[in-house]
Amino acid sequence: MIKLLENNLELKVRKDEVSLIKGMLKDCEKLFKDTMLAETERTYECKLEICEDIFLEDREGGACGGIILLAHGRRIVVPNTLEDRMNLCFEQELPLIRRGLFPVEK
Q: Please, where are the H alpha helices in 23-81?
């Protein structure tokens, strides 16, 4: 939500997690508003809505859970699944992994 700074976002979630996520939407909206006010001293609001016609599939990284944020008529896509987060961590740690596998000889 912070990356996009949009007034409205759709959430693509797993079909079996729709009711769980629905129960969290108001808390997420409030936390976003409070965080942005504390960090920027400006009021930002964002309305979250769950996509009821499409759901997060295993092939999109949904096997382990998470969400995909959609904006601007679903043209902007921000994946935030566990698989995506793990891949991001892996990419960030690649230099350390390379140094461990291929130490520089002195």
A: 25-40
Nearby residues of 22 by Cβ (< 8 Å), 6 or more positions away: 50
Distance, CA of 76 to CA of 12 (rounded, Å): 12
46 Cβ partners below 8 Å, 6+ apart?
Answer: 1, 5, 6, 7, 8, 9, 29, 32, 33
**Distances from the Cα of 83 to the Cα of 18, 35, 92, angstroms:** 19, 26, 14
Best CA proximity match to 66, nearest among 58, 74, 4:
58
Predicted structure pTM score: 0.82
Contact of 38 with 1, CB cutoff 8 Å: no
Which fold, 8-101?
Answer: hypothetical protein PF0899 fold (3.30.2320)
- Give the Cα separation of 6 and 53 in Å (integer): 21
| Mean of pLDDT values over 74-97 | 94
Residue with tokens 């808390």: 27
> What is the model's pLDDT at position 105?
81
